[in-house]
Design a protein that fits this description.
The complex is a heterodimer of chains A (about 525) and B (about 230). Chain A has about 525 residues and is an all-alpha fold. Helix content of chain A is about 80%, strand content about 0%. Chain B is of the alpha/beta class. Chain B has a domain of about 60 residues. The chains are: A mainly alpha (about 525), B alpha/beta (about 230). The interface between A and B is medium-sized, with 23 and 32 residues.
């Protein structure tokens, strides 16, 4: 006596159509276009693809290894020791991670190290140190100390304990951090474009160059196929590794950091101060150089070529507001389906909604210009920008609300419905008030993602309606000290907006623990 | 009058209820008594419409309830563990059912319900601040406030300690009688079942074993298990 609940069907339709039309369909069009180019394209295509693909792989692997090495000292310090400034250091190294890519690119240009492969690698390390520190230290600080003590008693020296006990135990966390960093740097676009231009073309940059400046859409599509294959392969290898390697051992409930003594004190402080200090340099230089001239006033001056930089701030705020609204509607509907309906459909939904996260922003933007001429030509509408941003943000809204929704006891909803609440009233009076705080966090994520999004926007933003990141890029592309200074000033503005919202999210999430 | 006719309930591949039948006439209170895991709560949820039945039929005043959503059945269910809304005050919890009926400010009904369970003046309290016994009373008041045509109580005193239970059994009994409700009480406690109901229905492993007053059942127990369970 199962019956179809038409209300749920209606709720499921919205995210399905959204993801289907704005994600799955464009990706399918890219695949079709790219595969035919790979088959029938000019003879030089494969060699070109191989060269770009190889460089992308190489720089992503290098970036990953270098980040692991650079993060090791601080990770060791904050995992093993309790010391003054430990929390602050962890928070500070997270700042680069949340900054928009164009801001990081500008900061490294301000350092004067642009236009080299080392600048790109350094920027990738700068971005991702936090991934290692946070992922690995949560595990490291909870390893049962009796395991290490046992090794000591059996005759192992300090470094042998690390190599034979600690390091193997940390392997799952190191693998997780490495694959996240690999994915980020494999699909890195803004940093590479700003720091390397077209000289150091990764797949992302090459897709952009072929599609936007050379109008060779088939070749761009072929590159996007290579890119999709690379990302899928990385994700697949990671998930099989995770499955084989899921060894459980007794983790401590709390952490067991100890006070540093003797020579360790110096090493802990050296590791902390050096890491935090080095990461602070690009940002400090960016901020100080941005004040070295009348650059903030130039934000309001209309230039015949680039337009008025301050207008980009207004555009970005508008786009971010619309993107946030769209992401909330789609994300909350999807979260409702995932948590309220059991079985295959909801699991399938959960997985499909995460796909845009694994796809590069460039592929999303490129897909829009390849595919959205059917059934209507949408490519000229301004709506595409907030839609692309919402697509990237929906997984964050879903991830921040699903755990809270799952935690609501089913009886609360049953109680509401036996008291006469219709299904939408149950949602309105039970789910929504309880999830509202988590939803607000999701909304803030969506807003901040939209503000800094560059990859997809660079394909679809029109010259007359620049966003902050595309305006920064436009200013950087122009020669002249004033243009560069204005780019720095605008970067500082964007960085400040981003940091403010992220700090709010951090506090809201901390306050949420333990309620209900 | 409620008629449950040979219903089956299954979740995926486990069957919870087998051919369960039950009738409750107007003004009667029936206690469904059985060990934990016997399917008592599932029976209540099926009647409330919160779980689908895979066979049989449930009728109210002669009309089938198949396809009628829980919020349209007009029944009240007091949940095991109470399911009070943590983000609403006591008054908002109790007034919820009336507001769903379209009443915008059910102030006087809420006050009456609070008085009925002996918690006059508790309206503005948060759920957090209530003791276990107070929560039980609020849940009872919330269930009764919209005047449901059938009242179902799932282990109404299950979560409380012994002393409190004895006192609240009497209070609950008095409240149910005052409202002249038609009701089903689910419990695993024989004394509670006897104190709250007119008639017992014994349940085991998803099946209804026997029904009648305590004296009737003990006079002619269906099998050895029934005798042992009631003694």
């Amino acid at each position: 006596m199962k019956q179809i609940r038409w209300g749920w069907v209606a709720v499921a339709t919205v995210p399905t159509v959204f993801i289907g039309y704005f994600y799955a369909y464009p990706v399918a069009r890219i695949l079709a276009l790219g595969l035919s180019e790979l088959n029938f394209g000019a003879s030089g295509v494969q060699a070109r693809l191989f060269k770009v693909g190889w460089f992308t792989l190489w720089q992503a692997s290098m970036s990953t290894v270098l980040t692991l090495l650079a993060a090791a000292p601080l990770t060791w310090a904050v995992s093993t020791y309790e010391f003054r400034g430990r929390r602050l250091a962890t928070a500070l190294v997270t700042v680069p991670f949340v900054l928009p890519t164009v801001v990081v690119g500008t900061a490294f240009l301000a350092l004067g190290v642009g236009d080299s492969i080392w600048a790109i690698l350094a920027a990738h390390v700068f971005f991702n140190v936090a991934v290692v520190v946070r992922t690995v230290s949560t595990l490291w600080s909870r390893i049962d100390p009796s395991l290490q003590e046992a090794a000591h008693i059996l005759g192992a020296k300090e470094w042998q304990v690390f190599r034979r006990i600690t390091l193997p135990l940390l392997r799952p966390a190191i693998a997780a951090a490495s694959s996240i960093i690999f994915l980020f740097t494999f699909t890195s676009f803004g940093v590479v474009l700003v720091l390397g231009g077209f000289r150091f073309a990764t797949l992302e940059v090459e897709i952009y160059r072929q599609a936007v400046t050379l109008f060779d859409l088939p070749l761009a599509a072929a590159l996007a196929v290579v890119q999709l294959v690379g990302v899928s392969l990385a994700l697949y290898l990671y998930s099989t590794y995770q499955e084989r390697k899921t060894v459980s051992w007794t983790l401590q409930r709390g952490s067991n950091r100890r006070k540093p003594t003797g020579g360790a004190v110096w090493m802990v402080y050296a590791a902390t101060v050096l890491t935090v200090g080095l990461l602070a340099v690009p940002l400090m230089v960016l901020v100080s150089r941005s004040f070295n001239g009348a650059f903030y006033r130039a934000l309001l001056v209309t230039d015949p070529v680039v337009g008025t930089p301050a207008v980009a701030v207004r555009n970005s705020l508008l786009f971010a507001t619309v993107a946030m609204g769209l992401a909330m509607i789609v994300g909350l509907m999807a979260a409702a389906i995932i948590t309220r309906r059991k079985g295959q459909l909801s699991r399938w939904f959960d997985m499909v909604l995460m796909l845009p996260l694994g796809t590069s922003a460039v592929t999303i933007g490129f897909g829009f210009i390849v595919a959205l001429d059917w059934p209507f030509d949408l490519r000229a509408t301004l709506w595409l920008i907030p839609i692309a941003h919402a697509l990237v943000a929906v997984p964050f809204v879903v991830r921040s609300t699903v755990p809270t929704l799952r935690a609501i006891p089913e009886d609360l909803r049953g109680a509401a419905s036996t008291l006469g609440a219709r299904p939408w009233q149950v949602w309105r009076h039970v789910d929504l008030p309880i999830v509202s705080r988590a939803a607000l966090v999701g909304a803030a994520f969506a807003f901040v993602i939209s503000l800094g999004e560059f990859g997809a926007t660079s394909f679809i933003a029109r010259p007359t309606t620049p966003t902050i990141p595309t305006m920064i890029f436009r200013l950087l592309s122009r020669p002249g000290e004033t243009s560069f200074g204005t780019a720095m000033a605008l970067s500082v503005v964007l960085a400040a907006m981003t940091a403010g919202i992220v700090m709010w999210i951090d506090r809201a999430q901390a306050g949420d623990i333990g309620r209900f | 009058m409620l008629e449950v006719k040979t219903i089956d309930v299954r979740f995926d591949d486990t069957q919870i209820l087998y051919q369960a039948s039950l009738a409750v006439s107007e003004g009667e209170i029936v206690a469904v008594l059985g060990p934990s895991g016997s399917g008592k709560s599932t029976l209540l949820r099926a009647i409330a419409g919160l779980v689908d039945i895979s066979a049989g039929d449930i009728r109210w005043e002669g009309a089938t309830l198949s396809g009628v959503a829980p919020h349209l059945r007009g029944f009240g269910l007091m949940f095991q563990g109470y399911a009070l809304f943590p983000h609403m005050s006591v008054a908002d919890n109790i007034g919820f059912g009336l507001r769903m009926k379209g009443q915008s400010d059910p102030f006087s009904e809420v006050a009456t319900a609070l008085e009925l369970v002996g918690l006059a003046g508790f309206g503005e309290r948060t759920i957090d601040s209530l003791s276990g016994g107070e929560r039980q009373r609020v849940a009872l008041a919330r269930t009764l406030a919209p005047h449901p045509s059938l009242v179902m109580l799932d282990e109404p005193l299950g979560a409380l300690d012994r002393n409190l239970r004895q006192r609240l059994v009497e209070d609950t009994h008095r409240v149910l009688r005052e409202r002249k409700v038609t009701g089903i009480v689910v419990t695993h406690d024989r004394d509670e079942a006897v104190a709250l109901s007119d008639r017992l229905v014994l349940m085991r492993n998803g099946q209804i074993v026997q029904s009648g007053s305590l004296a009737e059942i003990l006079g002619d127990p269906a099998d050895e298990w029934v005798r042992e369970f009631l003694e």
